[in-house]
Amino acid sequence: ILNAGLVKNTPQGLRDCTMAALSHYGSLRGEDARGIQLPDVQHLPMDHREIPTACDIMVILLLDGKSNQKGNTQYIGAMRNKAWDVCPIGAMTMWLFSRLVALREIQCCV
User: Fold this and answer.
1) Residue 104: CB partners within 8 Å, gap ≥ 6?
2) What angle (nearest 5°) sits at the alpha carbon of residue 58, between those of residues 53 and 60?
3) Comparing C-alpha atoms, which of 13, 65, 57 is closest to residue 37?
4) Which of 48, 77, 90, 94 is 20 to 30 Å from the Cα of 11, by its Cα?
């Protein structure tokens, strides 16, 4: 399912790949995955002092959704995968890169 978005070779394909990866790794419903905003996403680097192998973890904050009727704070996490075509962090990175740099959709002030 993740590769179907990459085969399209379009920004929409990268978006679909990212949503599929987040839905799969976070056990999210489609509505919950589409409701994630950039401020809800955090990068958590883990080094050798905390776990045996250094890795990157993406933590996402969920405040609402169909499975969270009471508005409790929920967190989901996904670890970086060595296989780039099934990695949720890699999928989100490629999608954001296409939006910020290649398409210049979002204006940045530097």
Assistant:
1) none
2) 145
3) 65
4) 77
Measure the CA–CA gap between 60 and 21, rounded to whole angstroms.
13
For all residues of the chain together, what is the average pLDDT?
A: 76
Distance, in Å, from the CA atom of 5 to the CA atom of 45, rounded to the nearest integer, reads 27
Q: Are 54 and 73 in contact (CB under 8 A)?
A: no
Backbone angles phi, psi at 104, to 5 degrees: 50, 40
Record the pTM.
0.68
What pLDDT, in 10s, does the model give residues 3-35? 666 667 777 888 888 888 887 777 777 777 777
Largest CA distance in the chain: 41
Q: CA 101, 9, 104: angle at the middle one, nearest 5?
A: 15
Give 44-72 pLDDT, tens digit per residue: 887 766 667 777 888 888 877 666 677 77
